[in-house]
Amino acid sequence: MQRLFSSVASYASTIQKAISPSVCACLKSQGYAVVDGLGHGLADAYREEIVSLYKNGRMHKNSTHLVKGDQSHKLEKSHVHEAELSIGVGAAETQTNAPLCANLGQDTSLSTMLSLFMPDVKLDSQAIKLQYNEGEGGCFPLHIDSDPTIDNRVVTAIFYLNPSWQPHNGGLLQLYPWPFPPVSIEPLHGRLVLFPSQRMIHRVTPYKIQGAQGESQEGQGRCCFTIWMSQSPRAQRGRGQRTRQLPLSALQPKTSPEEDPEAAIQFLMTPQIRPHAAKMALSAEWLESLQQSHPPGPALDAVVQKHEAEVGVIKKALGRYEGIIRQLTQDPDMARRYLAWF
């Protein structure tokens, strides 16, 4: 019990010291922030609980949910296991078997500090998931955590718990702040990474454990926990933030990209359009990440077909901007003034 109380106090005080105006300024200006030195003792304690959950069969495979018409299917990711901590099936059991991690759900230090230094957002709820990657190439494809038309997640925070991580293991978090180039972040022990849930494309590269022959790899997986912080619709309305999605015709410039390239760039950087332009620009890499993340079979084939169909629709809608999209990839500074992360 003493360890539990000290860990709770340590987490809160660590977050209060770590989240500063400069961290939040970085998050708003470049779309992500990395904070190191969150305390190895604290990270060790969280990792111990996550590894115990995995070893005792209290985690389930991470899955992509595929919806087609009125049917829904799950496509499992190879070698990636997770446990719900806040809501969902198994959350109560996870809280019982991982009491230190469970207390994260009651601690609002992180959302409070972010709201304090970023007054444009008011984070008033959170959900937490624990994750264990076995190290047999487990990874995640390119994706965005949230869609404003589906849920209210605003900020994603990932805490990494990997004391033995080495560069040859892989398992990097790769952020895609398109049109700027990808950023690779190592999953170091005691590291916190923050980024906008609704606007940052990201993935996890394949993670592999490469110990000496005969060396036990049990418990050597890649561990982390993710906190998704949300802003309620009432808070959004109170701050004058518009959640309604406008039709393409209302956003598109009246002039052609050749006549007014600046207007075209501004259009492509609007939050509603930018993810689609990015998917068009990154389509080959996006496809490769899907194939790396899921086992071969009909379900993966369906995901690949869905991706290719979506890219086809995007090209049809944004084809006139293909030249501008290529220019932005080569010279992303052209878009800097129009790119907003929150």
Automatic annotation (TrEMBL):
PANTHER family: EGL NINE HOMOLOG-RELATED, HIF PROLYL HYDROXYLASE, ISOFORM C. Gene3D superfamilies: q2cbj1_9rhob like domain (2.60.120.620). Its cofactor is L-ascorbate. The keyword Oxidoreductase applies. It comes from the Eukaryota. Keywords: Dioxygenase, Oxidoreductase, Vitamin C. It comes from Dunaliella tertiolecta (Green alga). Residues 10-230 form the Prolyl 4-hydroxylase alpha subunit domain. One of its GO terms (biological process) is cellular response to hypoxia. The keyword Hydrolase does not apply. Residues 234-260 are annotated as: Disordered. SUPFAM superfamilies: Clavaminate synthase-like. GO terms for molecular function: ferrous iron binding; L-ascorbic acid binding; peptidyl-proline dioxygenase activity. This is Prolyl 4-hydroxylase alpha subunit domain-containing protein.
